[in-house]
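Service request form, structural biology core

Requester: graduate student, group of Dr. S.
Request type: structure prediction, single chain
Budget code: on file
Notes: please return the result as structure tokens.

Sequence provided:
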Amino acid sequence: MDWGFVPAGTCEGQLHSLQKDSYSKGIKDKTVLVIAHRMRTVSGADKVVVLSDGMVAEQGTPEELMNTGTIYPHMVKLQMISQDWGIY
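Core staff response, request fulfilled:
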């Protein structure tokens, strides 16, 4: 399967885990640019670059950004809050 044609935003649960495992094996020892809206997608990255209005606003490891950033931690918190949202 060519994972390049599976939008990450449509993958949930086990499929997302399989996709992430497949990516991890395929990109070992390579430089990869990942564009993501889900923070869990970049949680294991060596470096994260946060863009705002087309400019680099923050950069660092996920851990560094959680401690010193403003945009990145805000996005993480918003996603944590919204992960349990549903239509009832």
